[in-house]
Batch of 3 targets.
Target 1
Amino acid sequence: MSDSRPIGVFDSGLGGLTVVRELFRLMPGERIIYLGDTARCPYGGRSEETIRLFGIEDAQFLMDQDIKMLIVACNTVSSVALEHIEQRMKDIPVIGVVLPGARAAVLRTAERKIGVIGTVATVRTGSYARAIGKIDPSIKVFGKACPLFVPLVEEGMTDNDITRLAAQHYLYEMIDLGVDCIILGCTHYPLLMEVIQGTVGTRIQLLDSALWTAKEAQDILTAMNALSPYNNGGLEASRFLVTDLTLHFEEQAEAFLGNTIPSIERILLEDLVQ
Amino acid sequence: MSDSRPIGVFDSGLGGLTVVRELFRLMPGERIIYLGDTARCPYGGRSEETIRLFGIEDAQFLMDQDIKMLIVACNTVSSVALEHIEQRMKDIPVIGVVLPGARAAVLRTAERKIGVIGTVATVRTGSYARAIGKIDPSIKVFGKACPLFVPLVEEGMTDNDITRLAAQHYLYEMIDLGVDCIILGCTHYPLLMEVIQGTVGTRIQLLDSALWTAKEAQDILTAMNALSPYNNGGLEASRFLVTDLTLHFEEQAEAFLGNTIPSIERILLEDLVQ
């Protein structure tokens, strides 16, 4: 048995392309349909009600495209609205980025102290702490919102003095707290990996949820016998949709995807709003 | 003759409250109806097409509230979409923030070199340079986008090392260019006045468009005999509407308004989207 339908992936913007990159590394034969809500990003500072609304709209749009699996590649939506989305999409598996990242961190912490960095909304919900607590309640979790990291990445400032100073401002307290793992709880943060590692030192391991989310998707599709039968999947066979063709979107997409994006289609916000 | 209808003011978020503050200082008897599109802010990095669409939606919503004047208190929308909005609102005066700021700078520059700082969209359109060029084509205008300033203000970092380093990064080139006036072409920037002045030195004058926009509104209403007949205007008699009750909106509103906001009503994005 096999399933030739595409995998749906969405994020508030282009950051979720880090998950797409890992999906292609593990399953080069799959087709992806990606949605980035670039007309309304970033979601991370909005109210939970609005994040839920936007997340459900994004998910419903992809559901209407006949996908076999939905990946919520946005930490903010995964933290605030994953259950609401799962309730509405009963027919196909729905994966968020929080649980795979939490599992990977639990397997790696020797000190039993994990740090989580992300947007204001992600950290405020305590979603990673809850996910980790369900696996091992004895592990301590420390969250820290780093709201400047997204605009720094969006401006291409992945390695300069301002970024290093911001990293020190946010992360020195993580060192003092004695964590030995930090989950990068936002799809933008892998692009700051070098600056973050340089700030916290090599004793602390950084965990990028994107890789673990892609692994979970592979495990589920394998268990369901739902991998694609084709060998003609990959970038060229996939679709990339955004709600706004923002300035520099091609360079930004390339930075997240690690590859030139073949083409981006713009959809109207009206097609999303219910 | 007089006109008791309110003045409509909108911005992508809460920054436009700096204009409201100045309106109340000059015309304490007026009532304001303010709209902040906090579910979709910031506009500054989006495409011109999307900024036009959002700006027209915001303007139309206020028009439907029976206002006597519309103030576009958003530099990005004023730069990209003012003409489109004026074409649709033929019955009442429409004021943007660009022209009043440009006029004030022209009257003040001795060196005939003016700097303009703002969002990516504001600077890219060259709206201030065009407005200044129409008044005096011999004046040189230098624009610089400062995309980190909005998130720095939103995080309350109006006076720390990161903000000072960002200010140096963006503004040292203005000093080298020999400008003697810098227009703060974004409603968030007045909150960074001290850091910016400290960076560029006291030889350079900073111009906040908010004050000059309020003066223009007063001039027009006076000329039209359309000032409010009441003495019971002001904050308590005004309405403040947002599309999302984002985190910390009360503190942020207070920072921009310079006063406690009496109440904020949330409207649904569906009421705005046409």
Note: Residues 7-96+211-271 of chain B form a domain with the Rossmann fold fold (CATH 3.40.50.1860).
Target 2
Amino acid sequence: MSNYIKDEEIQNNQIKETISILCEEESYKNVIHGPHNNIAMPSVESLKEIVDLLREVIFPGYFGNSCVQLETMQYYIGVSIDKIFNMLSEQIKRGFCFDICDDSNKQCLDCEKNAKRVTSKFISALPLIRYLMSTDVKASYNGDPAAKSFGEVIFCYPGIRAITNYRIAHELLKLNVPLIPRIITEMAHSETGIDIHPGAKIGEYFAIDHGTGTVIGETCIIGNNVKLYQGVTLGAKSFPLDESGNPIKGINRHPIIEDNVVIYSEATILGRIRIGKDSIIGANIWVTHDVPPGSTLTQSKKN
Amino acid sequence: MSNYIKDEEIQNNQIKETISILCEEESYKNVIHGPHNNIAMPSVESLKEIVDLLREVIFPGYFGNSCVQLETMQYYIGVSIDKIFNMLSEQIKRGFCFDICDDSNKQCLDCEKNAKRVTSKFISALPLIRYLMSTDVKASYNGDPAAKSFGEVIFCYPGIRAITNYRIAHELLKLNVPLIPRIITEMAHSETGIDIHPGAKIGEYFAIDHGTGTVIGETCIIGNNVKLYQGVTLGAKSFPLDESGNPIKGINRHPIIEDNVVIYSEATILGRIRIGKDSIIGANIWVTHDVPPGSTLTQSKKN
Amino acid sequence: MSNYIKDEEIQNNQIKETISILCEEESYKNVIHGPHNNIAMPSVESLKEIVDLLREVIFPGYFGNSCVQLETMQYYIGVSIDKIFNMLSEQIKRGFCFDICDDSNKQCLDCEKNAKRVTSKFISALPLIRYLMSTDVKASYNGDPAAKSFGEVIFCYPGIRAITNYRIAHELLKLNVPLIPRIITEMAHSETGIDIHPGAKIGEYFAIDHGTGTVIGETCIIGNNVKLYQGVTLGAKSFPLDESGNPIKGINRHPIIEDNVVIYSEATILGRIRIGKDSIIGANIWVTHDVPPGSTLTQSKKN
Amino acid sequence: MSNYIKDEEIQNNQIKETISILCEEESYKNVIHGPHNNIAMPSVESLKEIVDLLREVIFPGYFGNSCVQLETMQYYIGVSIDKIFNMLSEQIKRGFCFDICDDSNKQCLDCEKNAKRVTSKFISALPLIRYLMSTDVKASYNGDPAAKSFGEVIFCYPGIRAITNYRIAHELLKLNVPLIPRIITEMAHSETGIDIHPGAKIGEYFAIDHGTGTVIGETCIIGNNVKLYQGVTLGAKSFPLDESGNPIKGINRHPIIEDNVVIYSEATILGRIRIGKDSIIGANIWVTHDVPPGSTLTQSKKN
Amino acid sequence: MSNYIKDEEIQNNQIKETISILCEEESYKNVIHGPHNNIAMPSVESLKEIVDLLREVIFPGYFGNSCVQLETMQYYIGVSIDKIFNMLSEQIKRGFCFDICDDSNKQCLDCEKNAKRVTSKFISALPLIRYLMSTDVKASYNGDPAAKSFGEVIFCYPGIRAITNYRIAHELLKLNVPLIPRIITEMAHSETGIDIHPGAKIGEYFAIDHGTGTVIGETCIIGNNVKLYQGVTLGAKSFPLDESGNPIKGINRHPIIEDNVVIYSEATILGRIRIGKDSIIGANIWVTHDVPPGSTLTQSKKN
Amino acid sequence: MSNYIKDEEIQNNQIKETISILCEEESYKNVIHGPHNNIAMPSVESLKEIVDLLREVIFPGYFGNSCVQLETMQYYIGVSIDKIFNMLSEQIKRGFCFDICDDSNKQCLDCEKNAKRVTSKFISALPLIRYLMSTDVKASYNGDPAAKSFGEVIFCYPGIRAITNYRIAHELLKLNVPLIPRIITEMAHSETGIDIHPGAKIGEYFAIDHGTGTVIGETCIIGNNVKLYQGVTLGAKSFPLDESGNPIKGINRHPIIEDNVVIYSEATILGRIRIGKDSIIGANIWVTHDVPPGSTLTQSKKN
């Protein structure tokens, strides 16, 4: 028994000491967020709720708890939009405070005002997002022999889920919202394995099949009617370094994919190159140079 | 201050206008689900609960809250099965209504009746599913030097989790249940990165190691004692098009993998080809032709 | 109507019969956990909460609900550590009981005592884990032109999330905790698609970009300042078999990656080989032999 | 130890035996609900949610999560009413099935149809309920020197809460809804200690102060501008018995309280008597005969 | 602004100082529970769940989520009883540790063992509790002209709810379980306003109508077929004091109510007196002496 | 069928019309809260959480999830106090905005600042509240022969629960916090049936036994060592009316109860009278005049 008590003493001391080490500036200084700032980090849970509400609004009758009826649709969309406005402007405010706001007291009133302005503009873009998603749904349905209906595509396909998050995040990025767009695409990345940077520019009728492991880099430009399979990388080849040996931020370094291109699974396209329209890139291919329109690239024979 | 109020007015107008655009038929017509239909979409949350209950029943004592004891096991399995019957028949009914039911009023009674029949048959298949899973557990344990016990494999391995969902979904598909099987395999896809189409046919002693990015297409046939690694694609090569230029649905287009085949990471097997029994396919290989039994394919030397 | 009742009878019988089959030893014997043992399996939900608390402690002010302030930080860290001690020692006890404890009655008191000892030691390692994570954050920030701030890296990057789980799990494994480490890395695997075995040894300033499909095997040794991209496999080539034809467990079979190595997407490095320091391994490459320091491997030209 | 196991055996047997006794018809026959009926009991939780929604609709801006604004009020009220329609018609259906439906299969379609009709009529009564409640709020505010504002009365006063539930329940009772009205008044009884039978008829400007222990019987008739204090009983004096010696159901047996009456705490008014208008009944008084208009009754002097 | 910061400083200091005062022994010594004891207090939430499960078992088909069917009833009752055994024995163990266990380390194994024994005996008493409740339901139904069915009485009547809790608590008290019985009757007290001490002894066919404010003291003895109304007190008249001037604990000090007695609202019966069988006690009466069988007491005329 | 559709049309119209009536100013104008004000009502749920935290702090080791240990107590109390500060100052701000803030935009900054000041002062009063509660616990224990321990009194007694809420609310009222104090005492009223107005002034060693139906009015003054039983009313006798015939607010109108008074169940004390010290007021008594010190009042003989 005395053994047991001794154990407990030792453990209490270890724990006490650890707590005090963890509270020393030396330990926490590189990994702490804003100890003098009273604005919380954006809430990932709240953003999940917001994206769920957006999905409900974009695809009426598919998501959320209620059966849409034409008679009551306006009430539901009205409430969803109002909730989105309130919740999203709060999160965007937090994003501003996290990113750009030095003097928290003075600026935060501006942060709130700007957040509302930006959120309202974002909401105006929802009909556009819905239109673009309707083209993506058609593209996925038409291109997949296993697809049984538009509804199945909207409700089940991870590609559609990831593209929805991307299109939401991209609109927010265009409005210079910091941090939030990345959080939204990372949500989809976690759920689907599809990693689309919110900065990428993507046209209509876009489809990703299966999708796990697909990566689309920050400065990609993708035309209309493009289809990607799982494991495709549209990445950077190498990074010009600055004088301290670190990569220079913000340079165009990812591929341009023109209209009507198909890229099969695990293909890797690297660098600011151009894949000409109507081209087909085979599976497991590694491409680092421009490809003329109408090309078909396949892996050299293996067996 | 008057500035603030002006802002608010502008925003209120933007929002009001957006709501009314989103409620126009022109905007929603391609992305709405059944505005006149009163049956809700299948509930993904309810299906998650059902799959959790099934996992509890298949592997007693591993999942769920309670410690299984032989004395009380029958009560717990009895309750789980009864809950599965009630919850799953409701979801299957919704699947029928989503997919095949035109005249919602008349047919929905049939939908309910059929859903119960089908669910009851599915439940009869549980002992078979449990048997198959026990072979899969053995295969994973025997094939992985890092596996410490059957229990660790059952409790932690994403491969086992994905195969469980697949085997459940496949039985439902055999009973012609629409939509639900795909939802169940997509759950596992999201959690594990392993994408097995419920239509694939897979034998006993099946193992997937690591698994992220593995894709098994709708018309695959896989024999006994097959093992796959992460990033393996068993896909379609190309799709015959119909007169409107869209892929023809429902054609056999994925590989046949015979008994005792191992396929290493990132290998891509495309088209209705046959990988002969006892073959080994190396990592990052691209295969589009039949492979005779007993073959070993590896990537041509690189360095 | 009589039809309906007949249906119900048939279904009731099918269900009853299935329940009784599922309760037969013949059916459950290979897939049941400890029917005579009263200790529950480790709780994945509780472990999620523990890892969330650890993330809060390691990166103050980023996760959890509250805004960290220097005045109150010690209270919050004190409470978090106390909760971690209580919750984690319970889970570790369950891990011991699952793995090594035969006579549940006698040993379980030891299990509890040992679990507390081990948990207390683990807590002492938290300042080290925090230090290592601070180097990983710097590495990710410096190496990614798209990264906007340390904060964004800590809050959003799946690589950081997966490495945090790995570093926690690795410390637990060093203390011979069974099962729990694997559960913790599988959580990250599910969320990020990055699969790091807790047994791997990894140095400072480690970065994984995008990361979906990356696999790091049990016996890997990775130096300082190493960077991996998505889809990289550090795997085993083949497994020596024991006399019954099964792989021998516990042999060193995964690569050694020396300092300052970069490995691009989808590269596959197999077997107990050594990638010399300062080397660069290109995308989609397959490597099964030692690589001398300073090498650059790229895929042979394709087009 | 063997002692411990013996204990466990004894306990297992006791438990097993008890389960089997509890499953014998002899034991359960008087306390079981409809073993052959597949319609669940009304859900008290769902009814709580419905009453909360009704409170939100009746008193906009006081209850629920959102700040009412004139611009968006119609969306919120529209959604609340639609939810109330769906949820309440389901509960009313269950009430019908519980109460009046013999042949569950045939009638239940009627139950559903009738439940919808009735719910729709109930919703039409909401403006009336709101009007009546607005008079009750004024009465409570005017009569209580401690009341600070209409808002405090609406938000905090148990009397208002209990009267709201009563007015909802009474409208449902008028539509011949079984069981549900009683559940709704019992909710308020539990929260406030005020027990108003849904069958009572109560005029405008009704107030109950403090209210704990106040009882208003099934056949009471209460005029306008009446005020009651805590512990007041408006009850039955005695019950005419039927031939088997049980009270005859449904006879008028509770008091009639005319306009402008005040009844102080713990007064007990019993039987089908009439308290004339403008009367005052003192605390702790026991009244079993008619009281003429304008009377003031007080307890005979005590000290 | 500097004002604002000064405010913050003052507040931080006030708070810090208060925390340190609250942590001084002088402050907490009279109101702290067992600082060296590692066993938590009984969980009121867990006890609520247990009582809900008991209600489900006693009245099959009324409470809980599922529709009872004869085919599956045994599974549900089996699971409920098993859960009750596990949860209740844990709570009873906590009750023992709270009340009687000095040396927490040594005794707690006994506490656990005894708790299981006692719980198992309690479970054996469930058929008796169910039988008694069936008599109480009949008594409430027969005595109340407003009662529409047995089902309404079971599902809605606060009297039945309070008596159920009392009968559960009384069986536990008979097994010398500390603290838990009182918690269980206080739950009902809070929900219904009916305060029955678990020590009271109450016969069959017991009914309480309305019930708010009814109090039944610890040493009451109540015969068969007794009915009480709201606000009835069966209390103690005065307490013999010990030498330090405090009431002596554990003396018989509450009334004995014989068979077939009715006590109307707000009546107060005080002291170890006997109300003879077949008596009727009128409303608002105060009784402190024995009452012979067959008496009828009413308040002296008032007006 | 056409019948069914007709029904639906009628119902849709009824519902639509009701929604539009409910949105007319005529209907909502008397029952709406601040349509132009963006500050939400105080949150009852948040206040419940706050009161629970306060209970944890006042009685360490009794409430909340964790076992208090002296080593970690300061962390837990520190975190609880910090949470109380943040949550309560938010609720107090809402209280200010509800009550006194006209120009919501300008004043709300002040509301926030004042709320923080007030909350900080309230926290400084916690040691006093704890001290007073420790005297109340002793009083309850000493006065109740059924009380088994201080712990039982703290954990189970509704009187203690109600007095705790009252003492918290009273301190807030002294700091001129609007609305919140009343919400906090009404919480206890709902749970216990004890209705203490936060404005009452109550000394040390206060006890309420059973308590259902006890009412203590706004301007009561209660000395030390006073004990009340269930159903006691300390109320107002009559209200002086203002010129419009409404009661004048804020006049002293409730009794003064001096030290060492006991008031038995259902007694009613009305008006600004004085019950002299050491008096005993019997059950069911009605008192409207001063009572000299040392009096004993009992109901005139009944039988």
Note: Chain B has two domains: 37-193, 200-303.
Target 3
Amino acid sequence: MAVNLQPPRREDLLPVAGVELGWAEAGIRKPGRKDLLVIRLASTAVVAGVFTRNRFAAAPVLVCREHLDDGGPIRALVVNTGNANAGTGAAGLADARATCEAVGRLLGVAPQAVLPFSTGVIMEPLPVDRLVAGLPQAVSSLAAGHWLEAAEAIMTTDTLPKAVSRRVTIAGREVTITGIAKGAGMIRPNMATMLGFVAMDAAVPRDILQSMTLHAADRSFNRITVDGDTSTNDSFVIMASGAGDLQVVKRTDASFAPLQEALTDVARTLAQAIVRDGEGATKFIEVRVDEAHSVGEAAQVAYAVAHSPLVKTAFFASDPNLGRILAAVGNAGVADLDPARVQLRLDDVWVVRDGGRHPEYREADGQRVMKQSEILVHLQLGRGNESTSVWTTDFSHDYVSINADYRS
Amino acid sequence: MAVNLQPPRREDLLPVAGVELGWAEAGIRKPGRKDLLVIRLASTAVVAGVFTRNRFAAAPVLVCREHLDDGGPIRALVVNTGNANAGTGAAGLADARATCEAVGRLLGVAPQAVLPFSTGVIMEPLPVDRLVAGLPQAVSSLAAGHWLEAAEAIMTTDTLPKAVSRRVTIAGREVTITGIAKGAGMIRPNMATMLGFVAMDAAVPRDILQSMTLHAADRSFNRITVDGDTSTNDSFVIMASGAGDLQVVKRTDASFAPLQEALTDVARTLAQAIVRDGEGATKFIEVRVDEAHSVGEAAQVAYAVAHSPLVKTAFFASDPNLGRILAAVGNAGVADLDPARVQLRLDDVWVVRDGGRHPEYREADGQRVMKQSEILVHLQLGRGNESTSVWTTDFSHDYVSINADYRS
């Protein structure tokens, strides 16, 4: 079902020096599938992360924030699927801490050096015994070449693993970046998505890495939506192992901007992969808003279009019922929007001129674009010079089926 | 498909003195169905209305506002289905005015005394010639006993006509109230829904009638949602014909509050009928939020739950995957919400205590409630003393089918 998304090929996924990955079949929710991942980092590694703004943030998210705020070295990540450990109160927090302690014992590092992540059903107790029992298997398989298995180990309703690598030369030095992500539903990240992990071998100080992470998130995971539901577990982490050739010391370094752009490119590719694999998706849609008063306003309008069930079902049906897009724009909460300044194009087809149907618009032209698997919805608001894009999917019968049957 | 909604019986719909209704089959979109309604009001009538806040408000909405602001008497309403006359620019505005002129000529009243309403597909030119050609038939059938036909004439994707009557005695005088409404999709009214018309025979000054209309809308049409999409054409109108026994002169009259409550009751019944007939609905769900800081905050949280596709598909599946409700609450934008103070009940079943799963909650109990056709989702936020309720539906395969096929 995924839209123009290929499974990653093992040979395309580059090991990152200083980063090892191991997995297990711990039977967290169901037996016989990879559901536990451990990532071990070199002692030189620096880690930064952004997390969900959902007020019901999951226990592992709370523990991640705590361990990162602690300021000490981060030496390992542990990820389970099958259970979100969210809405689980004090017991859930204890389970997340116990997970970090168990990983710490096995790797010989402090519990505070471990970041925990969970994804799956909300409000069910984490089967922490089964998780801990699976850890030795995960640790015994740690190796730098296991990115594909790692991508598989974090899948839930994803139909394909999501992973990408880039090798770039910056300031004459080679940097290797590899990232994985999971997610297909409950996707409208607010800070980051559940779950994205990107590693590189460059050395970057913590504060600079954190700002690079925010920069990348705001242009990737914070610009996608499948169903408008922000998860309790969204987490996006960048790991700089420091085991490679490139070292960034300060923001004014010539290498800062190119490295930030390379990381953003990897994050955007992963974020778009999540949309392409969105639950029930048959179309990949970019909603681009230009001439907004601010980037925030552009995003607000783009999300109003991207979240409208009526717009999404029209895309599913390839029906150029494009008045629904205008209704969504009018509904976006921009109080002083002047409809008479709004332009709408579908790819190259000019549909709405100055707030009304373009006199030369023909439904056959709209129909042609609507039938494509990738569509650009291009809006101009006539209010300013700011722009943004949001990537989303259509809304199909399969979305309903997948989410009506998720737990069964 | 409608949830516990019966078609209105002709004998239950009471004529309102001073109000006549006539219809036609004008072939606006398709031939052979009622698609045009004219309501004629006595010269004593007073009319108030509330309209969509969508910035792409339809041409008839703009003309309604203009004619009401004008302050002169309103003597007729004209309603077409099959075409929303929205996103139609200057031509659409001219068409709406031409419609009022044609009605005015036939009834011998000024064009400014006519309020126009449209519902149907957005961004297609109104076939004003067919509409005007159908008016003589509608006018020739004007009669006080035609409320059922009027309810039928304003239907689009509705599966059943929606109409209700009440006869109440206030301050020793009898008042008759009859209302009709339409709507099944693009339902998240913001001020009022497309379309609600309520008439009564009491006499009420314009300013008091306007505040009664706002009061009723805020407790009825402004508290329902099917898909979160605010229409371009939402309109809710109350007509006070003044042909009956009761006269309200000022807000301090003993009759003011009971009459306002009777109107609100009629509006709420019609609004809930729209939800029960929501596109693809299999369940009727009340989301009640107590202990909020403000009514606005309560509504914000209730809508976040009522709009979540994941919550709605879980209800469709009768799957007590209730963590999705917590995720929606955490996602409602209440920045300082303390999860540890949140309680969640499903009807009488206590699911979440102090932000986590209640230790005595059993999934079988949640399952029992989820299987019902009517469900109360009851949240307490532990932040204050304000409450509100929002009524909504589940999200089914049929919603997708209906909206993917709407125009075909």
Note: The mean pLDDT of chain B is 88.
